[in-house]
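Why do we bother with holo predictions? Because pocket geometry can differ from the apo form. Keep that in mind while you read this record for phosphoenolpyruvate.
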Amino acid sequence: MLIVMDHSATADQIEAVNASVKEMGLRPEPIPGSQRTAIGVLGNQGYVDDSTIRNLPGVREVIHVSKPYKLVSRDFHPEASVVEVADVKIGADFPPVVMAGPCSVESEAQMFASARAVKQAGAHILRGGAFKPRTGPHSFQGLGVEGLKLLRRAGDEMEMPVVTEVMRIGQLDDVCRYADIVQIGARNMQNFDLLKEVGKLDVPVLLKRGMSATIEEFLAAAEYIVAEGNGRVILCERGIRTFETATRNTLDLTVVPLVQQMSHLPIIVDPSHATGRRHLVPVMAKAAMVCGANGLMIEVHNNPAQALCDGAQSLDGDDFALLMQELQHLYHCYQTR
Ligand code: PEP
Ligand code: MN
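The structure, written out:
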């Protein structure tokens, strides 16, 4: 960390900053310049909280050299991490893993028909929301524990691990009882208490990018989980809010290679929530794969027209089967190049 003082900063102000740095157990190293003094801060192991220094008289700027995430960074862990869920491996050079299923668990018939369709098409992990973070309170809120049970039964029957969202700490016991991967949705990416709580568990976590989160904030959120001891984190890009209204969100595929350079954690892409439109999902899924995504999350419903949630972006079984074939082909082309 580098503390840049105002050019008018007095010797007393510089001394006060030095004292404050020492109080934090760190070493100040004043660097006098012709215009102003800078103070280098030495001895820190990682990111330093600058809140006691930033507002001291005479301080112009605090420049961080260390990032707010360390454990998830490549500097700390150069090798790509692989998250294992049952016999599915996600990350590094393993083939992209496809998580698919309905937005929400609606009924036994819907869940099982959708699960059968994604299994037949070759998906690896079954998704289905039981606790739904809906924008408005009048929309279908999910079946809750009943939905978790149906998802689990469908997963067992299809021999697929299951992923589902947890919205708050109070739901964690139930979600962990029935799910193989716990999903933290975009709206909860910075629910720091929830992040810390899943960090204490031994369960894979799918962390979705907040809709206006920077990459640094995304990785810092993952750091919360890893810092508590749970390293089994899978990141998920699901589109961000921009000025564009033609699509539900704007799919930021740049994060895939960028995050893979910055972090050792696997990253998958959700083109369903990113686009909000069914016809855009297959092409963006393929684009994500070409970018090197470690997997995909795709909404598939046995009857999208009747879906209680996100029908407009859900593929039906046939469209999904076609997409899976195309992904296979694309992957093969890239492997044999
Ligand atoms: C979901 O995957 O069900 C979901 C609500 O996604 P997001 O958090 O990305 O909006
Ligand atoms: Mn959805």
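Residues 103, 129, 133, 165, 185-187, 208, 238, 270, 273 surround phosphoenolpyruvate (ligand 1) (CB under 6 Å).
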